[in-house]
Design goal:
single chain, about 220 residues, alpha/beta, eight-stranded mixed beta sheet, two-stranded parallel ribbon, globular
Length: about 220
């Protein structure tokens, strides 16, 4: 299929792009710096189109999203000092462009912090939640709340485990809903490779439209 990936050269976006290409999909990668995908473009010259665009410019996004069957956003705000504010401005721009472009489905790389703990509280509200991640966590939670109020857009939001680390795909993981998934030792972990597998599985066979879901070992 034709897939547009926003933030395709980032930490998670690069794993999504590689997984999509390996599955034989046509990928339009929207990035800030096209040079970051130069090597991958040489490897997949017939499958990968790389476009440099500013996600904060909703009008600039429009022609690249117009009537696309599937858009995956892996945009993050980590490149800005005001991570939460930058993320929320970027997400608002992306969402506006997606809705104006008559996109078929919209998949969002979400955050883990809004997942629920056994006592019903959110991970974000834990007293030991790392301050360094609070900005991105708050931005991702705000995006989830916006999507949950959408009535016409076909969306899915995939939260990773509490810890997502660079790593290859094993294909062995669990899916859940709004609860934080942990293993027998109480750890909540997933590799970028397996996160990408879960997201591309959803892209190919939608099972969580209008929902947030999560993936972990």
């Amino acid at each position: 299929m034709q897939i547009v990936i926003i933030g395709a050269s980032g930490f998670i976006g690069s794993a999504l792009t590689s997984e999509a290409l390996q599955r034989g999909h046509q990928v339009r990668a929207l990035v800030r710096d096209a040079g970051k995908l130069a090597a991958l473009q040489q490897q997949y010259p017939q499958q990968l189109q790389v476009v440099s665009v500013d996600v904060l410019d909703s009008q600039a996004l429009l022609p690249w999203l117009q009537q696309q069957p599937l858009v995956i956003s892996a945009f993050s705000g980590h490149s800005d000092a005001d991570v939460s504010g930058y993320y929320q401005r970027g997400f608002a721009s992306i969402l506006q462009a997606v809705k104006q472009s008559a996109v078929g489905r919209f998949l969002l790389v979400g955050g883990a912090a809004s997942l629920q703990l056994p006592d019903g509280s959110m991970l974000l509200d834990s007293p030991n939640f790392p301050a360094a991640y609070r900005g991105s966590a708050e931005g991702a939670y705000a995006a989830l709340q916006q999507l949950q109020s959408e009535t016409t857009l076909a969306w899915s939001y995939l939260s990773p485990a509490a810890e997502i680390f660079p790593g290859a795909a094993s294909g062995q993981f669990r899916l859940g809903g709004d609860m934080l998934l942990t293993d027998a030792e109480g750890h909540s972990r997933i590799s970028t490779g397996d996160y990408a597998v879960a997201m591309l599985n959803e892209a190919e066979l939608p099972a969580h439209t209008g929902q947030r879901f999560t993936v972990a070992y």
